[in-house]
């Protein structure tokens, strides 16, 4: 049996649960890339991302995987498992780069990076710098950027993945973006230090 | 509208902008610059997403997961292709070993060849073995039908046939299509092996199924 375009994740899961190998294969091929990229962005390691993707789908294979369609989508559930796996790996490696405080609800200063500096963000070297900046964000900010900005997961689903209110997703994303701008600014102006809300060095 | 109120209208903070926000950014140079920065950042993030968008897990992961799925679902992997000569050689080896002892102690049960039997030789491969058997063996109602071994019909049939009763492990039945439980695989079962004059087994039947 082959996948039909109208077949939802939940329908595939139902077939998979009845032992349909093709359904499992279709589900895997549909969802693996985003989960793999999420794990890769979060961990910065292809080997870790490979371990994570295996764990995620092995969890789905197990009968007691705990997925409840009433609580969220299957994609969100898979991201949620991937997140837990990644955080466990990060905890083990303790490679997190400590940046600044956590205050989720604080509105960060808006760094006044120069126009020419930000213009290069869309060029190859700018993209590489931005990717490095994302990977040095604290995990709680990195994960919202990866989910919402890179994988285009909507805020509601991101809240399900992160097990937090939608408002927390929004504030973390806002703060994460501000942190990214600040990091990019500091990368180009290392001697100027932090910025005040008005954009002038302090 | 203050700068703080303006930034609270950002989409990620749940605001919807609106005319008041647009008016603020027209009048406030720092907010206009910050908004421009955010636009550049969004474009850069879209660039990262596009550059990494084609990444996916290595193909070997799917293979490993499919194997795990089969194990969990109790699905058997596709069986390897059977080689026709495996059961033939196995039964021939068993028969040759036992035949010597049988001929020494039980005597030969050779059925004298008759023209009728000789002409029936080609039909023997079609499982009509009974006409070629000694009467006492053929009338053994406790026994099942003889099962021709693979490639038996490729062997000459116009020779004397001997029946040798042997005991073999129950696992030997698997090669002939019987299902055998793992816990009974090592049990001994009686079998009649129909042997050609060349010493090769032609067919077999089991007396203890």
Q: How much helical structure, as a percent, in the residues of chain A? A: 55-70%
Structural class of chain A: mainly alpha
Distance between the termini of chain A: 65 Å
Radius of gyration of chain A: 19 Å
Mean pLDDT of chain A: 80
Largest sheet of chain A: none
Summarize model confidence as the mean pLDDT of chain B. Answer: 69
Helical residues, percent of chain B: 40-55%
Low-confidence stretches of chain B: 79-83, 105-127
From the spread of the alpha carbons, the general shape of chain B counts as rod-shaped
The number of E-state strands of chain B comes to: 4
The low-pLDDT segments of chain A are 96-112, 192-202
N-to-C series of helices and strands of chain A: HHHHHHHHH
Element-by-element helix/strand order of chain B: HHHHHHHHEEEE
What are the main properties of this structure?
heterodimer, A: 9 helices, 63% helix, elongated, disordered C terminus, B: 209 residues, alpha+beta, four-stranded antiparallel beta sheet, 4 strands, 11% strand
Describe the structure.
The complex is a heterodimer of chains A (202) and B (209). Chain A is mostly helical and 202 residues long. Chain A is 63% helix and 0% strand. Chain A has 9 helices and no strands. Chain A is elongated and about 60 Å long. Chain B is α+β, with helices and mostly antiparallel strands and 209 residues long. Chain B is 42% helix and 11% strand. Chain B has helices at 3-7, 18-27, 29-52, 59-73, 85-105, 115-119, 121-124, 135-138, and strands spanning 147-148, 162-169, 188-195, 201-206. In chain B, strands 1-4-3-2 form a 4-stranded antiparallel β-sheet. In chain B, strand 3 (188-195) and strand 4 (201-206) form a beta hairpin. In chain B, helix 2 packs across helix 3. The longest helix of chain B has 24 residues, at 29-52. The chains are: A mainly alpha (202), B alpha+beta (209). At the A-B interface, helix 2, helix 3, helix 5, helix 6 and helix 7 of A face helix 1, helix 3 and helix 4 of B.
